[in-house]
């Protein structure tokens, strides 16, 4: 104590990612008025979705049609209620009153991502996140900033990735070229050269396909530690067919989601008769190979790869990424004092702070937008 003074401010970040494994919530303290390098995680937690909501979110993410406008409206409010409950619970656990939190930064839940180059009708790119921020502000009593991606898309960008600026503030080194690798449902890199522009882009699937295949064949939501994959061997011909997907060859800026990489996409490339564990091993190798290929193509001199996101807990995946990148040290962001499970949620706390300060949140060198833009809309507390 004090939790808030003229020198420090508390923001609360909320996100449910492509994996739809739960709502990540991070309470973050920022000091001073400078860059984000003076920020620390006060408390972080992941709140699981009720199983019925999760099942629907996964189905929608895999391209299932939203049944009706009624379903969108209901889900929007329902997700908002769960986000608000997560914020309240996190603040309670940390012993911080809502009135001491400057703002919530809520990413919401992406239900469709159709960026430039992948627009549904070819001409109107969009990205859609649900989680009604009016509901979050009303139920939490905390000013809420939300809808961070769409301004960047309107400015010609991908609306993603949005975390590179924070990665840069927290993890840049003046002594070596680094990369931050976020292994969520989708994998993305932030490239942090010793000198020069920050870049960032999605590399393809990380956990999304492995989760889906594992759930179908074992009933487990994810392959803990990569144990199921370890029971099989990589099928080199299948791996080749998967890597033939033209998306992998696109140059950055690029972003993707379950719209491209879903179970039917895998199914269409199977010959039939493959052992389930061999497919799991191949999907793990697909992540490891596509990540390594992208890094070698975009920043060949990388000395250190700092890994965050849930995939950091998949020991076998990390081993295979390291094996594919012998020239670099591959380690968790924890080695640099940054909790790998809450980097993204911290990022949305940071984006809320940027918005309230009238500062840009995107990096045009990353998203491809026409310029820096203030991201997000403010929903004031009552
Ligand atoms: N112990 C573990 N072993 C293997 N994979 C794990 C483990 N813990 C988490 N994961 C993976 O991390 C995913 C969640 O990562 P997260 O960063 O939250 O992704 P997203 O941002 O897409 O929600 C899970 O779906 C799972 O695939
Ligand atoms: Mg998640």
Features:
382 residues, alpha/beta, Nucleotidyltransferase, domain 5, 2 domains, 5-stranded mixed beta sheet, 36% helix, binds adenosine-5'-diphosphate, binds magnesium ion
Compact description:
The chain has 382 residues and is of the alpha/beta class. 36% of the residues lie in helices and 21% in strands. Helix 10 (276-298) crosses helix 11.
Description:
The chain is of the alpha/beta class and 382 residues long. The chain folds into two domains: 8-160 and 343-379, ATPase, nucleotide binding domain (Nucleotidyltransferase, domain 5, 2-Layer Sandwich); 164-336, Nucleotidyltransferase, domain 5 (2-Layer Sandwich), CATH 3.30.420. Helix content is 36%, strand content 21%. It is built from 13 helices and twelve strands. It has helices spanning 51-61, 69-94, 133-140, 150-154, 164-171, 208-218, 227-230, 236-243, 263-267, 276-298, 315-324, 343-356, 364-367, and strands spanning 8-16, 23-31, 39-47, 101-114, 126-130, 144-146, 178-183, 186-192, 199-205, 304-308, 329-332, 377-379. Strands 1, 2, 3, 4, 5, 6 and 12 form a seven-stranded mixed β-sheet that branches. A five-stranded mixed β-sheet has the order 9-8-7-10-11. Strand 2 (23-31) and strand 3 (39-47) form a beta hairpin. Helix 2 runs parallel beside helix 3 (133-140) and helix 10 (276-298) crosses helix 11 (315-324). The longest helix has 26 residues, at 69-94. It is globular, with a radius of gyration of 20 Å. The two termini are 26 Å apart. It binds adenosine-5'-diphosphate and magnesium ion (MG). Magnesium ion binds at residues 17, 19, 21-22, 24, 310. Magnesium ion is lined by residues 17, 19, 21-22, 24, 310.
